[in-house]
UniProtKB/TrEMBL annotation:
Any Pfam family: ECH_1
Metabolic or biological pathway, per its Swiss-Prot or TrEMBL entry: Lipid metabolism; fatty acid beta-oxidation
Protein name, entry field: 3-hydroxyacyl-CoA dehydrogenase
Organism phylogeny: Bacteria, Thermotogati, Deinococcota, Deinococci, Deinococcales
Lipid metabolism found in the keyword field: yes
Protein species of origin: Deinococcus actinosclerus
3-hydroxyacyl-CoA dehydrogenase C-terminal domain mapped to chain residues: 477-569, 605-678
Catalytic activity: a (3S)-3-hydroxyacyl-CoA + NAD(+) = a 3-oxoacyl-CoA + NADH + H(+)
Amino acid sequence: MSTENIVAQSRQDDVLILTIQNPPVNAFSPGVPEGLKAGLDAAAADDSVKAVVIIGGGRTFVAGADIKTFNLPREQAPDLRGTIDKLDAFPKPTVAAIHGTALGGGLELAMGCTYRVATPDAQLGLPEVKLGVLPGAGGTQRLPRVVGAQKALEMMLSGEPIKATEGQEVGLIDRLIDGDLLSGAVAFAREVADARPLPRISERSVEGASPEVFAAARQGIKKSHRGQLSPELIIDLAEMAATTPFQDGWTAEATKFMQAKDSPQSRALRHVFFAEREAAKIPGLGKDTPTLDIRRAGIIGAGTMGGGIAMNFLNAGIPVTIVETTQEALDRGLGVIRRNYENTAKKGRMSQGDVETRMGLLTPSLDMGSLADADIIIEAVFENMDVKKDIFTRLDAIAKPGAILATNTSTLDVNEIAAVTSRPESVIGLHFFSPANVMKLLEIVRADKTSDTVLATSMALARRIRKVGVVVGVCDGFVGNRMVHRYGEEARQLVEEGARPEDVDAAMNALGLPMGPFQMSDMAGLDIGHAIRVHRAKVSGEPEPDGWLDRIVKTGRKGQKTGGGIYDYDETRTPRPNADVQALIDTYRTEKGVTPRDISTEELTKRLAYTLVNEGAQILDEGIAARAGDIDVIYLYGYGFPAYRGGPMQYADEMGLQGVVADLERYGQTPAPLLKRLADEGGSFAGLDASRGR
C-alpha cells in the first residue's frame, strides 16, 4: 500500500484532513509516519491551508505502535518521534480527532498536535508498562504537562485507559464531539485557526509536582510492580518532566525507552502479548468451524468450584441452573454466591440492582432432570472417577441432543469419562481454576473424540465469560497440574535434603511468584494433594505414601482452612513457621538416614524453575500442549508465574537452554529429549513455536 493510501489527504476549504487508513487498528507501522509527514509538508507549503485535522479511518484513531516493529533496528522502525517532533514545531494549528482508541503511540501522536477533540466514548491511555517499556515518543514528558504529575503517573503506571469524558475533565481533550466527528473537528479547527501563540504542550509546566508525589509512586510500585524495571524509569522521567526543560526529558526518554525495550522483562512481556493471542488459535481448526449457540448453562455441584463457575456465566448474562444433592448444600452454595456479589457491591464495583439481576438468572434445583434444556452442562463435583462416570451416565440420558457435556476435572482421564456416554463427541474438559470466578485461566481439554464444533464453541465461550482459554490434551493433570505435580515433588525433595519450607518458598517469591510451592499447597489444602498421592499409589499398586508432607496431613494440619498446615496462620493468613512441623521434618530425615545440608538460593531456584521447564518440554514433545507459548500462558494465568519473566518456557529461553540442561544434569535430573535436542542445536522454545507456524 502506498504512502498516499495509508494516509489520505483531502480538503474542506481551508482545512487539510489527513486520514490514517492502516486497518484493522491504524497501528503506527511503516508508511504512517511517511504519510503524515508528507501531509504536513503539503499543508506548510500551501498558504490557503489554515489548519490540519488528523483522524483515523475505520473504527479507531491509532491504537498504538506496531509491537512487531519493536525488534527492528532503530533506523528501520517507524519514526514516531520524528513525526511528533514535526507536529510540535508545525506553524499551523493541528487537531487530533479521536474515536475508538488513542493508545500508546496513538495518544503520543495526539499530544503532539496542538489540540485534541474526541467522541465521548473514545478511550485514551499509555499502556506501555504492560509490555515492559515506557512511552517513548514524548508521552512521559507531555502527559504530566497536561494532566498533572499524579494523574500522569497513575495512567502510565497502571497502563489503563480513561474515557474521553474524563480526558476533558483533566485537560487532555479540548472538546467532546457528539455528532459527526470529522465535521466537528473541522469546525473546531476553523475556530482556532488564527489563535496565536499555539498552545504547545511541550511549552507547559507540570502541576502538582511535589517531591512527595514521586516518592509515593516509588513506594507504590514496590508492591504493584515488584522487581520491574519500566515503572522505575517512568517515574524518573515524569520527575524530569517536572524539574527539567522539555528537551532534556525528551532526550532522556529515548535512551531509557531503549534500555527498557532491550531488557529481558520487555522481551518476556512482548512474548506474553503474542502467546496469549496465539493460544486462542486452535491447531487444525479453521475460522469457519461452526459453533453452537450457548443460551443456558447447567452446573452440577454448588460447592466452591461449582458456585464460582456459575458466577462466570451469570456475569455474562447467561442463565444457569445449578444442581445439588441436598437442600442444605444448595442453600449454602447460593448463599456463598450472593455474599460474593454483595461484597463486590459494597466495594462499589457493581450496583445492588446488578446483584439482583445476576441472582435472578440463577435457578437452584435438586433434580438433575432440570438440566434437560441446557446447551452446556458442567460437572463440578469431587475429584473421583467413579462419581464422575456415574454423573455422565445419567447426563447422557437427560441432556438434549447436541448439548456440550463438560467435566471440571483437574487431573482425571476425560476419555474415560466420555466413554460412558453414547456421545463422546460432545464431551470435553473445562478445567476452571480456583477461585473460578476470579482466576482467568481455562484449560480446555480436548478428548480423543471431542468434535471440532464442541472445541470451537468452548474457546468462543471462554472469551465470552472473560477467560483465557488454552487447548490441551488428555494426560494425568493435563498441562498445569502435571507440571505443578513434578514441581511439588522437587520442592518436597529439597526439604528432605535439608532446606526449610520457608527457604524454598522464599526462593520462588524472589523469582516473582506470589506464592511458593508450600504456600500454594497450604492455600489449596494439604489433604487434596495427599488424596491425589494416595489415589495414584492405589492405581499403581504402590504402598500408601508416607512422606513428610503426608505425615503433616495425618496430624490434622490441612492448610489455611484448619488454621495450620506447613505453616501456622492467623486471621490475616500470613504464614509463620511452626516448630512442631520442623521437628516432624527433622525426625523424618533421621528415619531416612538423611544428613541435612545447606542448599543455596540459586540451587533452590534453578531446581524448581527448571523442573517446570523440563516437564513442560516433555508435555510439548508429547503433543499435550501445541505450543511452548501455551504452557507459558497457562502458568501465568493459572499459577502466578510473573508475566515479566514470560512464563517458564520463555524464562528458560532467556536463561539459555544449554545452561538449563547443564544445571538439570548437575542436580541429578534427566533432561527431556526435546529440551536436550533444542539445547544441542542452539535452539529455543520460541524458535520451535515459530517453526510450527506460530
